[in-house]
Every structure is written in structure tokens, then in C-alpha cells.
From TrEMBL, chain A:
Protein name as it appears in the record: Bridging integrator 3
A GO cellular-component term linked to this record: cytoskeleton
GO terms of biological process kind: actin cortical patch localization; endocytosis
Keyword presence, Cytoplasm: yes
PROSITE patterns: BAR
Coiled coil: 24-51, 153-180
Location in or out of the cell: Cytoplasm, Cytoskeleton
Domain BAR, residue spans: 9-264
UniProt superkingdom: Eukaryota
TrEMBL record, chain B:
PANTHER family given in the database record: NUCLEAR FUSION PROTEIN FUS2, RHO GUANINE NUCLEOTIDE EXCHANGE FACTOR 37
CDD domains reported for this sequence: BAR_DNMBP, RhoGEF, SH3_ARHGEF37_C1, SH3_ARHGEF37_C2
Keyword set, alphabetical order: Guanine-nucleotide releasing factor, SH3 domain
Protein name: Rho guanine nucleotide exchange factor 37
Taxonomic lineage of the native organism: Eukaryota, Metazoa, Chordata, Craniata, Vertebrata
Gene: ARHGEF37
Boundaries of every SH3 domain copy: 512-575, 613-676
Classification via Gene3D superfamilies: Arfaptin homology (AH) domain/BAR domain, Dbl homology (DH) domain, SH3 Domains
Length: 285, 686
């Protein structure tokens, strides 16, 4: 970059052309948002570490989106920290509690049903865990890494800013001397001030240019960067839900009487409840 | 017809004999007649009964229903009178059919009763059990003038021909009717000659209907007992206290002592194995229902919280590709699939489960009450065996216990069985719901995966690919980081003066070269321990955090004073490893290691891959035009080699330097010593 020739007619403050500044702001602005969103996403994902579905639903595709309000991972809202994994664990508890109930000893048929149920739940839970691990590797880690670039970026921008300040200061100094009388010592001072200015200006130009080059590159790299993560997310889902479907398909074949419609089931339940209500020992309200 | 009994022909009593025969014939005729009358009575009363039921239902009740009176409990009043009507109609038809059969009529009637007895028991027991309640309602409505008026109005509108003053006139009919059956049958029976098959049949019918009535009464009693005790009482502490009186205290004390005696083995517990088993099973059922309910609740809670946040519309910057696909997928799940799942779960599992849990209360109360009453019972038994008699109240108490016990023994098995069936059904539904959910999600996911670039890759290959890609991306990221870090810090304009140099040396020796920082702009301390420093000064880092834990404020050693400075105004300052912080380097002349200077403009030769050995480099700070042959012209920024830091006369104002093969003197003040920062230049982007 050549020295920008020192134009006397330039307005006092305007040492950096507006377009340049605007470009810089734009690019940096985009990246600032990107950083914010990456951080937020990472936080949310961390919150639902064990989550899979809950996690995934909260992972906004294109976490790099502008003004992305994230699906709050359950947990980033005020309620209890909820994760799909918590759901998974709750499901396991359903069956394990029943299994430990003395009813199972007393009634063989019941024991059969509950055991099958329990097995299914545990298997689902373990697949769930696998899925979570996979996601940890293919989504959360990369996210972290991506976010780790930002501190360096920010430092660089700060340094540019500092240089800019210095540049401005010296520029003002030069302009001041220029306005004074141009003779003898004044001239020498002016000369010296100019000499001081030059390297600083060069430095600023350098920094500015470099950042202007690198920032867009970084910004556009996000697309390629995150694409595999999303693919991985979806594939992991497919894997998990295939397993889940087959596990519960088996279970239903055993205990569920799959062919019944919802209405029929409801009616059956009503039937039983009605039978119970008809008993005197059951109080009717 | 008439039974012939052995007659002793009395010669002298042919008249008597005739009279006997006549009497007998008359008798049997009378019997026949009475019998026929009784049968007729049965049928006609049944007909009128049915007629009245009809009236009650379709006229009176319908009329009241149309009025839509809010305070009127039609269900409580009329109970299951529809069912009774239904049964009675059929029964009447059956009776009327028998009228055509001459000889077989009585047999048919008996058979009819046998056929209908179960149905009758079922419908009548319900009605009778709630009849008391209905009466209470009628009474309460009588006291409400507005309702009473309405009711009277209805009665006059629908059944003016009766003299009914209130509903009870009609409501009592079924109660009366069912008790009448044994009586009516009995009348027929007594007018039927004994030792015939018809007599047998009729007698059996009478017995059957009597039994039906007994069962109805038993059922009624149980219901009363149950209703009395199966509510869990919500008493406040104050209420409980209010209930205490000597009697209740005494009662409770007795029970308690008895219970203790049981536990201590002093007194034999009344063993009722059948009951105990039943109760145990019931408790297991109750505990599993409760546990299940809790767990499903927690599952639902998690599901709920998970569904709570809603996806927001966003502007994606990743327009196409997997990110967008994923978003579609996630949105669909969130909007449709999961809410559906939750809805079904609610309907098919949660709600029935809650109702089941509610139903536990009644039996649990009764079980508790039974124990109390058992203790009373035993107490009274003991006294009875001592004194030989018991009071009326005590008798009643004993009966209560027996009633509760009988009730529980009769109904608990059914309860347990049905409850368990329901549990099984619920578990089955839960499983189906999970399966359906999985299928839905899978379907959606597969749809999107289809369209993804690597959608058809086999799994192991896919994971490997992802891993590789991520690794590469990691490398790329590192280069970005480097890129940003190589944005050079500002060069400093001031060379280090000797004093500063010495300070730097001492700092290095005290703290080590890696702790040096240079002040990038003037710092003026505002607080107590803050330092005021000039731009360009070198300090050594003592702590990168202040006493309050603020990491933006660092404790530094300024080569004398120590204090805090803002971290933002410091940049790392490095010395060469084997470096003497002196500008005049003979070492510089050793050409072996050209330490390069990092102050470059972007146009400077790019491949300045960092030689990460930091060093000092002297450069021209300003341009200088030589004005004599001994002087040398300089361009600002030019690196120079200092040959001698003074001129021939020893003045340090001038230095002998070499630039581009030329030598000459230049003002020393025009020279800068700048440290080389690492890394050098920009690293190349990806």
C-alpha cells in the first residue's frame, strides 16, 4: 500500500474515507452478531448437554443467523431444566418403579408386561445416550472451536482502533502545525510531525486492510463449517428414532395391541373406570 | 284338579260323603278361582306398574327436563329408572304371553321369573340403594318454594288424574314393586295344590325372588356403609379438635391400646387370611398406581417444559442446505409432532391414570375404618364373652365392622383385578404412543436426509467423513485465529532511552522476559493504587487481576513504583532470547541470524513466515536528506545497520549507519529501535 498522499484540502476529521469505514463497520457488525449468536447457542446447548431432541430442537439451524432468537433449550427458560434426556430418564423410572413393586411378585402376567416395558425403556435410554455423545462430538465441540476465534478477532479490531486513535491524534497535530507559520522551527516541527504520522498511518492502513480481507472470509466460512454439523444432527436423529421405533414396535406387539384406535382405547379405559366406579367401596363424587 | 283322597264310604253318611265331595270340589274350585285371580292380579298390576313407570319417565321427567331447572338433580331423583322400565316392559310382555297358555301358564310364569331374576336384581339394587338419597332430595326441594312450585306445576300438567302431591308418589313404585313379587307369587303358590310340579316351580320362584330382595338389601346396606366411610375427610385441625369429646377420646384410646396389644403380641390378632391377602394386594395396586402417576407426571412435566419455548422466525443466513433442512425438520416437530404426542398421552394415559388414582381413596378409607372397627369389635367381643350381653350400640358397632369387612372382601378382588387391567391398558397405550412418535419423527428426518448432500452415504462412512471434515475445519479455524492475531501491534515511535533500557533490564532480571509489557497510550491513574505512565514505558506484569478480581486491571511493576494499570493499554513486549537490549549491536552485524523486523506494510514481501525469534531492529524513523557527502539519505521505515553510534568527534548526535550498501552519518534521533513482535507478517489465509 502506498502512502496516501497528504492532501491539504482534506477535512480535518475525515482521515478515513467514509466508504472504508462503512465497509469495516458492516463486516465487523456481522461478525459481532455472529459471535453473539454463537455464544448464545453454545450456552443453550451446554445447558441441555444430555439432551438430544431437546438439544437439537434448540439448535437453530444456521446458528449464524442474524437476530436469531434461539429455540430456548428447555432450561434456558425459567422452568426446571428439561432435557430430552431427562425425559428419557423419567421414562426409565416409570418402568423401574413398577418393576420393584410387590405386584410383580404376586402377578405373573403383570410381571411379564412390566419387564418387557422396562427392557424397552432401558434400551431406548442407552441409544439416547449414544446419540447425545455423537452430538457432543459433531456439533457442540465444533461450535466451541468456532467461538474461540472471536477473542482474537476482537483483539485485532481493538488494536486497529487504537492505531486509528493514534493516527487521528497525529493527523490533528500535523494539521495544527500546518496552520501555524511556516518558517524555521515551525517548519521543522511540521516536518517532524509528518514523519511521525507516516508510519502510523501506514500501520492503520495495514491493519484495516487486513481485517477487511479476513473478516468476510471468516464470516463466509461459517456455512461450510457448520454444514457437516447439521447433517450429523439429522443423521443422528435418524439413527436414534429408527431404533426407538423398532424397540417400541416390539414392545407394542407384546403388550400394546397395536391395532386399536385411539377412540377404542379411550372407550376401553372408560369401561374399566366405569366398572370401578360401580363398586360401592369407591366413593363417587 | 281336585285331589282325591281316600274316602271311607259311610253308609249312613252318603249325605255327608256327598257334602265332603261337594266341599272338596268347592274348595278346589275356590282355589282355582283364587289362583286365577292371583295370576290376573300379577299381570294386571304389572301392566299398571309399567304404565306408571312410563308416565314417570316420559311425562314427568321429560317435563322437568325441559324446564331446565338448575337446582334440580334429575339424575339423583330418577336414578336408573330407565333401566327398570326397560326390564319391566319385557317382563310384562313375557307375562302377557303366558296368558295364552292354559295349562302351562304357571310353569311359564315361574320360568319367566327365573329368567329375569338376575337382571331384576341388577337394576333394582342400584335404584333401591339410591332411593334414600332421592327421598332426601325430594325433601329438600319441598323446602325450596320455587322448586316446589315448579314440581307441582309439572305434576298437575302431566298427571292430574293422580293425587300425587310430590314426586315420591312415583319414585317409591319400583321399591314397592320388587318387594311385591314374592308376595304375589306366594299368593299364587298357596292356591296351588301341593305335590305338583307347578307347586315346585312356583315355590322355587318364590325363593328366587325372596333371595333377590335379600341381595338388594344387602347391597343397599353395603352401599350405606361404604358411603359413610369411604370419603377421606378434609378436616382442619380445628375441626378435629372440635370433634374431641370424652366419648371419642375414650374410643380412640381403647383402639390404640388394643392395637398396641396386637403389636406386642399380648392379644391375638383376628387373623383373616383371606382379607389380609386381599388387602396386601390392594396396597400393592395402590402403590403402583401412585408411583406410575408420579412418574408420568414428571415425564409430562419435562415434555411440557421442552415444548414451552417456541421456535422463532429467523432470518437465516445459511440459505440452503442442511441448515435449512434441519430447521424445517425441527419446526415441524415442534409445531406438530410433539404437541400431538402430548395430546394423545394426556388423553390415553394421564387422564385415566388420574381418575384411577382418585378411586383409590374410597377403598383406602374403608380399609382404615375396618381396622378401627375391628378393634372395637374385638373389644366388644371380649366384653360379650365376659358379661354375656351387649348394648344396642355395641351390637351396631359390631355389625358395622362385619358389614365393612364383608364389603371389602366382596369388592376388593374386583377392584384389584380391574385396576390392574387398566394399568396394563395404560402401559400398552404408552408404548404405542412412543412407537408412533418415533415413526413420525423418523419419517420427517428421513425426508430431509434424502435431500442432503451425503444423505445416501452409509453410516460408518458418513461418520468418518464428518470427523475428517471437522478436523479440517479445525485447522482452518486455527489459521483464522492466527490471521487475526498477526494484525500487528502499533510500532512505537520512541526508541528506548538508556534509562528505560536499564529499567527494562532490571525488570527482566526480576520478573523474566515474558512478563514485559509496553504501554500503548498514556495512562493516568485515578484511584489509589493506579499508576500514571507514559506511552512507551515498559512494565512487568505482576498479576493479571486486581484485588477485586477484575481482570481488566493488572498489577505491574514499573521499575520502581508498583500499581495498577488498565490491561487494555498494555501490549506484550518481547526481548530476544539472547538479546541485549542495546541498540548498538555488534551482534547485528553477525550476519548469521538476520533478525527481521516486523514493521512492514502489506506490500512488503509476503513470505515473511515468522521467524519467531524476536529481536531489535533499528530503522529510520523519519526520512532524512543528506546534505553532505558524509551523510546518508534515509527513507522512513528503512532498516539500517548501525555501525557506530557516534560520529568522529564522539558526538552521539550522529550515527554511522549502513543502508543499501552505502554508509554515512544520520541523526541519531532519526533512528528507531523497534522490537520484533511475533509472528511476522500475516499468515496466509486458508
Amino acid at each position: 500500500m502506498s502512502w496516501i498522499p497528504f492532501k491539504i484540502g482534506q477535512p480535518k476529521k475525515q482521515i478515513v474515507p467514509k466508504t472504508v469505514e462503512r465497509d469495516f463497520e458492516r463486516e465487523y457488525g456481522k461478525l459481532q452478531q455472529l459471535e453473539e449468536q454463537t455464544k448464545k447457542l453454545q450456552k443453550d446447548m451446554k445447558k441441555s448437554t444430555d439432551a438430544d431432541l431437546g438439544l437439537l430442537l434448540c439448535c437453530p439451524p444456521g446458528s449464524t443467523a442474524r437476530r436469531w432468537d434461539l429455540y430456548e433449550a428447555a432450561g434456558s427458560c425459567n422452568g426446571p431444566r428439561v432435557t430430552r434426556n431427562a425425559m428419557s430418564k423419567a421414562a426409565v423410572k416409570i418402568s423401574s418403579d413398577l418393576l420393584s413393586n410387590p405386584l410383580c411378585e404376586q402377578d405373573a402376567a403383570f410381571l411379564g408386561v412390566v419387564t418387557a416395558f422396562d427392557t424397552a425403556m432401558r434400551r431406548m435410554d442407552s441409544f439416547n445416550q449414544e446419540k447425545v455423545n455423537q452430538i457432543q462430538k459433531t456439533v457442540i465441540e465444533p461450535l466451541k472451536k468456532f467461538g474461540s476465534v472471536f477473542p482474537s478477532l476482537n483483539m485485532a479490531v481493538k488494536r486497529r482502533e487504537q492505531t486509528l486513535q493514534e493516527y487521528r491524534r497525529l493527523q490533528a497535530k500535523v494539521e495544527k502545525y500546518e496552520e501555524k507559520e511556516r518558517s524555521g522551527p515551525g517548519l521543522a516541527k511540521l516536518h517532524q510531525a509528518r514523519e511521525e504520522l507516516r508510519p502510523v498511518r501506514a500501520d492503520f492502513e495495514a491493519k484495516n486492510q487486513q481485517l477487511l480481507q479476513e473478516m468476510p472470509k471468516f464470516y463466509s466460512s461459517r456455512s461450510d463449517y457448520f454444514t457437516p454439523s447439521f447433517e450429523a444432527l439429522l443423521r443422528a436423529q435418524v439413527v436414534f428414532y429408527s431404533e426407538m421405533r423398532s424397540i417400541f414396535g416390539d414392545l407394542t406387539a407384546q403388550i400394546g395391541r397395536a391395532a386399536l384406535s385411539d377412540e377404542l382405547r379411550e372407550r376401553e379405559n372408560e369401561g374399566r373406570l366405569g366398572e370401578l366406579r360401580a363398586l360401592s367401596i369407591v366413593g363417587d363424587d | 284338579m281336585a285331589s282325591t283322597h281316600a274316602e271311607e264310604p259311610l253308609a249312613e253318611d252318603t249325605a255327608d260323603h256327598d257334602a265332603h265331595i261337594y266341599e272338596e270340589v268347592m274348595l278346589s274350585e275356590r282355589m282355582e278361582h283364587s289362583q286365577r285371580l292371583a295370576v290376573e292380579e300379577l299381570i294386571t298390576t304389572e301392566a299398571s306398574y309399567v304404565h306408571n313407570l312410563q308416565l314417570c319417565l316420559s311425562d314427568i321427567r321429560a317435563h322437568l327436563q325441559k324446564k331446565q331447572l338448575p337446582g334440580l338433580d334429575l339424575e339423583g331423583l330418577f336414578s336408573n329408572i330407565d333401566d327398570i322400565l326397560h326390564v319391566s316392559r319385557r317382563f310384562l310382555r313375557g307375562l302377557q304371553d303366558t296368558a295364552t297358555q292354559e295349562h302351562e301358564q304357571l310353569l311359564s310364569i315361574s320360568t319367566l321369573f327365573q329368567e329375569f331374576k338376575e337382571e331384576m336384581e341388577m337394576v333394582y339394587k342400584i335404584y333401591c340403594a339410591s332411593y334414600e338419597h332421592a327421598l332426601l332430595l325430594v325433601e329438600s326441594y319441598r323446602k325450596d318454594p320455587r322448586l316446589q312450585e315448579e314440581i307441582m306445576d309439572t305434576l298437575t300438567a302431566t298427571v292430574p288424574h293422580t293425587s300425587a302431591s310430590d314426586l315420591s308418589f312415583f319414585l317409591v313404585m319400583p321399591v314397592q314393586r320388587v318387594t311385591k313379587y314374592p308376595l304375589l307369587l306366594g299368593k299364587i303358590l298357596e292356591n296351588t295344590p301341593a305335590n305338583t310340579s307347578t307347586h315346585e316351580a312356583l315355590a322355587a320362584a318364590v325363593r328366587a325372588m325372596t333371595q333377590v330382595n335379600a341381595n338388594i338389601n344387602e347391597y343397599k346396606r353395603r352401599r350405606e356403609v361404604a358411603t359413610k366411610y369411604n370419603k377421606a375427610e378434609q378436616l382442619t385441625l380445628r375441626d378435629r379438635f372440635a370433634r374431641l369429646n370424652t366419648h371419642s377420646i375414650a374410643k380412640k384410646t381403647t383402639r390404640l391400646s388394643r392395637l398396641l396389644m396386637h403389636e406386642a403380641g399380648i392379644v391375638a390378632k383376628t387373623e383373616d387370611k383371606e382379607y389380609d391377602e386381599l388387602e396386601e394386594k390392594f396396597q400393592s395396586v395402590a402403590s403402583s398406581v401412585t408411583a406410575l402417576k408420579e412418574n408420568v407426571a414428571s415425564y409430562l412435566q419435562h415434555l411440557e417444559a421442552f415444548l414451552l419455548p417456541t421456535p422463532h422466525r429467523c432470518e437465516l443466513q445459511m440459505e440452503e442446505g442442511p441448515a435449512q433442512q434441519y430447521r424445517r425438520f425441527a419446526e415441524h416437530l415442534h409445531r406438530a409432532v410433539f404437541p400431538e404426542f402430548r395430546r394423545r398421552l394426556d388423553r390415553l394415559v394421564w387422564k385415566p391414570l388420574c381418575r384411577l388414582a382418585e378411586m383409590l381413596v374410597g377403598p383406602q378409607q374403608l380399609v382404615k375404618k375396618r381396622l378401627d372397627k375391628l378393634l372395637d369389635y374385638e373389644e366388644i367381643q371380649e366384653r360379650k364373652s365376659e358379661t354375656g350381653s351387649v348394648t344396642y350400640d355395641e351390637e351396631a358397632a359390631m355389625n358395622t365392622y362385619l358389614a365393612i369387612n364383608a364389603l371389602l372382601v366382596a369388592e376388593l378382588p374386583r377392584f384389584n383385578q380391574v385396576a390392574m387391567q387398566l394399568l396394563g391398558q395404560l402401559l400398552g397405550s404408552f408404548s404405542v404412543l412412543q412407537q408412533d412418535l418415533a415413526t413420525e419423527v423418523l419419517h420427517e428426518a428421513k425426508k430431509e436426509v434424502e435431500q442432503m448432500p451425503h444423505g445416501h452415504m452409509l453410516l460408518p462412512a458418513f461418520w468418518r467423513m464428518v470427523e475428517d471434515t471437522l478436523q479440517q475445519s479445525g485447522v482452518q479455524l486455527r489459521t483464522f485465529i492466527q490471521a487475526f492475531e498477526t494484525v500487528t501491534p502499533s510500532p512505537l515511535l520512541q526508541p528506548l532511552n538508556p534509562a528505560e533500557e536499564r529499567k527494562v533490564l532490571s525488570l527482566v532480571s526480576k520478573h523474566g522476559p515474558d512478563k514485559l509489557y509496553q504501554v500503548t497510550s498514556n495512562v493516568s491513574g485515578s484511584k489509589d493504587m493506579d499508576l500514571t505512565l507514559q506511552r512507551g514505558q515498559i512494565v512487568a506484569l505482576l498479576q493479571s487481576v486486581d484485588t477485586k478480581g477484575n481482570t481488566g486491571r493488572w498489577l505491574v511493576d514499573a521499575g520502581g513504583p508498583r500499581g495498577f494499570v488498565p490491561a487494555a493499554k498494555l501490549q506484550p513486549y518481547s526481548l530476544g532470547p539472547s538479546q541485549q537490549p542495546k541498540m548498538q549491536m555488534p551482534a547485528l552485524e553477525s550476519g548469521t541470524e538476520r533478525r527481521r523486523h516486523s514493521y512492514v506494510s502489506p506490500e512488503a514481501p509476503k513470505p515473511q513466515v515468522a521467524t519467531f525469534t524476536p529481536a531489535f531492529q533499528v530503522v529510520a524513523g523519519f526520512s532524512f536528506t543528506a546534505r553532505s557527502p558524509q551523510e546518508l539519505s534515509l527513507q522512513a521505515g528503512q532498516p539500517v545497520v548501525v555501525l557506530e553510534p557516534h560520529d568522529k568527534k564522539g558526538s552521539t548526535e550522529w550515527s554511522l549507519v549502513e543502508v543499501n550498501g552505502q554508509r554515512g552519518y544520520v541523526p541519531s534521533s532519526y533512528l528507531l529501535t523497534v522490537p520484533v513482535q511475533e509472528p511476522v507478517g500475516w499468515s496466509l489465509p486458508v
